[in-house]
Amino acid sequence: MQALKVSWLTLVLLVAMAGTSVAAEYWLSAQTFLKPMPDATNVTMWGFAQCETGFTNCGTPSVPGPELIVPVGDTTLTVNLRNDITGPYLEPISLIIPGQTAIMVPVWNDGSTGNRPPGNTTLRVRSFTHEAATGGGTAVYTWNNVKDGTYLYQSGTHPSLQVQMGLHGPMTKDAAAGQAYTPTLENPNTTYVKDVTLVFSDIDPFLHNAIATGTYGTTGPTSMIDYQPKFFLVNGNAYTGASPLIPAGPVGQRTLLRLLNAGYKDYVPMLLGYHMSVIAEDGKLLPFARQAYAPLLPTGKTMDALFTPTKGGKIPLLERGLNLTNAAASPGGMLTYLYSGPNRGDFNADGNFDILWRNQTTGENRVWLMNGTSLTSIVFLLPESSSGWTIVGTGDFNNDGSTDILWRNILSGSNAVWLMNATTRTGIVFLPLESSPGWTIVGTGDFNNDANTDILWRNQTTGLNAVWLMNGTSRTGIVFLPPELSPGWEIVGPK
User: Fold this and answer.
1) Which residue, among 75, 74, 76, 71, has the nearest Cα to 2 in the 3D structure?
2) Degrees (nearest 5) of the Cα angle 15, 19, 25?
3) 367 near 354, Cβ under 8 Å?
4) Which of 13, 40, 281, 324 is deepest in the core (most CB within 10 A)?
5) For 411, what's the count of Cα atoms within 13 Å in the CB-facing half-sphere?
């Protein structure tokens, strides 16, 4: 099943029956906010926040804005936009999606709309389409016959300024579940197991300060001609040592990279140690896929590229033009790490599921190394004969690409992870104690999509369910799930 990215903001879909036609609908509020930067400064940004129907319960604005996903089979996208930008410098805003067809009427710099008046050569276009006025003005934008692919939505008003301020985001639509485009004989590989959206952008603090202080266009800069970015971002973040991993597909499974450049410079994304198969550009399937080690991504461009992780662990993604600084400090900028975990239970990283055994009587542990359904060899692990210890799950707890083993002592409430390198134990890490009656570990998985293995718990006595959110082997939080009190129900997956 296609693994869809789900924002914590509410996705609002309007399904309207008109023959076979359906529609996706979003509500976006453009807001002003401060973005902390790695050098401990704050930069004034404009960003989109996703709201519920009628602009109720709006989330936090972000740069890039929330991903607009048009579900498979939908033919129409509608975006309701409200201009809630605040500060001493204000402008109307609008929304366009280059590559998608819509009816657009230009707005001129005197506020008039439509065709240029005959004989008037002084008017300039302010916006490609109708606008949402300052002070809470609203506008509705509709695209019919939405095409498959990866696109960049952005403000169509004064785009040289407003896109830089942060009014942009990704929009995606797949041809089928887990398939980015309808394949052709010459370009047949368009399916994927996991997609990763990567938006490249940049920030010139001098420009943003002019907006924050109201000096843009007067005593401050009057255009982008002297634009000099100091921060270089991937998905709105300049790299620091604390930057989170970005989950990619598992080892041996195809990952789709959706690459978008919302910045003012051309960039060259590179996956260290991998080639990419570029299958589409600007939402159009290429006649033939082309292999690229570091493809050029000009400003405003989108690109879809496939790659298959061959080993688990971190995969560096960096900008080959070496925009790798945070206001001259290094390392930083357009550097991030994808993470590809092993197929759960693949102990020797050969792409096959192996079988983990335990003899609870003798304390012996072993792995059947498999080739499909054929047993190729048996490897004995270190024994564990201490009373009460049982194997309750597996996962890559230290993000090194190896399958680790999760243990629980049902007598003491202790929990531990065997860190593994293939079938060799390299260390033991003890997790927090859980001795409350009735609680058992029933599964593992990445529940918050942060590339870390989390732990699923159930209390069969009370019916309560919970997830330990993990950062490696450190517990960062506990989330309680809805209870299940009906008799007889047990969690059987994910394991």
Assistant:
1) 71
2) 25
3) yes
4) 281
5) 5
